[in-house]
Amino acid sequence: MFRLGLIGNPVSQSKSPHIHHKLLQENNLKGHYQLIHTEADNLGENIEWLKGQGFTGFNVTVPYKEKVIEYLDFLEDSARVMGSVNTVKIDQGKLIGYNTDGKGYIRSLITLSPNFLKDAETKSVLILGAGGAAKGIAHQLLQSPFKQVNIANRSLKRAQSLVNQLGASHFLTLTEATEELAQYDLIINTTSVGMSPHESEQVIPLNGVKPGTIISDIVYKPKWTSFLIEAKQRNCQLLFGESMLYYQAVKAFEIWTNPKYNLNQLRG
Ligand code: ATR
């Protein structure tokens, strides 16, 4: 019996119960995924409660993805690099923190384009944005030998610091990026620009982009952002934000249900 849950505030609009109940069913596993609305003062108390109740693990959402770290016993590499945790596994009474955003993104990319990572040496990637989401995605992409992974951001300093921290290729301004879109095979919007209720906004125009380029938006509300609408008009391949959302949940589910992710493995 897998007892799973989500800690955050707010949690009521979350799609996670639906996704995880479906994954449990598809894998013939018994379990339940529970929403646990948590006030800042109750974070530690609620985590203790989850441990005491025999939960297998839980997800963490805003505003506790960083704050939760002080309650954990171990951090897996992706969570350490990002300084943020979205998935916790409770194993032998110990709490292990993971961040599945980057790996979830990669899974969504491979689902759209199965050979993209295999051909990494011939591919150039442009990441728009230099916040937490950009960091998770860039960190995972940089595990493959891409020709280049460039980061463009409104604040150039932030792009520079992320490029330096992760060992990415180049940093540039959004304006510079718009002038060289033809050289990229994958362009990812990791900013919140275009998110409802600001649907008409777009982080950069897509003039000059090659047809067939993968245009990817992590915004999933609305599904069809202005960025992706323009990408479709330009005959690009589209990677929707809801795909990343789904696969980061699948990654969390694997961590909870696959013995490969146990404590001994992490220590080994
Ligand atoms: P997250 O953790 O969700 O990535 P974040 O750390 O606040 O959130 O980062 C938001 C990203 O969206 C940043 O790259 C931000 O650019 P700045 O670093 O220059 O602030 C980008 N962003 C937000 N609003 C933007 C806008 N109107 N135009 C361009 N970029 C924007």
Automatic annotation (TrEMBL):
SUPFAM superfamilies: Aminoacid dehydrogenase-like, N-terminal domain, NAD(P)-binding Rossmann-fold domains. It comes from the Bacteria. Residues 6-88 form the Shikimate dehydrogenase substrate binding N-terminal domain. It is an enzyme of class 1 (oxidoreductase). InterPro entries: Aminoacid_DH-like_N_sf (IPR046346), NAD(P)-bd_dom_sf (IPR036291), Shikimate_DH (IPR011342), Shikimate_DH-bd_N (IPR013708), Shikimate_DH_fam (IPR022893), Shikm_DH/Glu-tRNA_Rdtase (IPR006151). Signal peptide: none annotated. Residues 117-193 form the Quinate/shikimate 5-dehydrogenase/glutamyl-tRNA reductase domain. GO terms for molecular function: NADP binding; shikimate 3-dehydrogenase (NADP+) activity. NADP(+) binds at D77, G129, A130, G131, G132, A133, I218, G241. The active site is at K65 (proton acceptor). Pathway: Metabolic intermediate biosynthesis; chorismate biosynthesis; chorismate from D-erythrose 4-phosphate and phosphoenolpyruvate: step 4/7. The keyword Zinc-finger does not apply. GO terms for cellular component: cytosol. It catalyses: shikimate + NADP(+) = 3-dehydroshikimate + NADPH + H(+). Keywords: Amino-acid biosynthesis, Aromatic amino acid biosynthesis, NADP, Oxidoreductase. Shikimate binds at S14, K15, S16, T61, N86, D101, Y220, Q248. Its EC number is 1.1.1.25. GO terms for biological process: amino acid biosynthetic process; aromatic amino acid family biosynthetic process; chorismate biosynthetic process; shikimate metabolic process. Homodimer. Involved in the biosynthesis of the chorismate, which leads to the biosynthesis of aromatic amino acids. Catalyzes the reversible NADPH linked reduction of 3-dehydroshikimate (DHSA) to yield shikimate (SA). NCBIfam families: aroE (TIGR00507). Belongs to the shikimate dehydrogenase family. This is Shikimate dehydrogenase (NADP(+)). It comes from Alkalibacillus haloalkaliphilus.
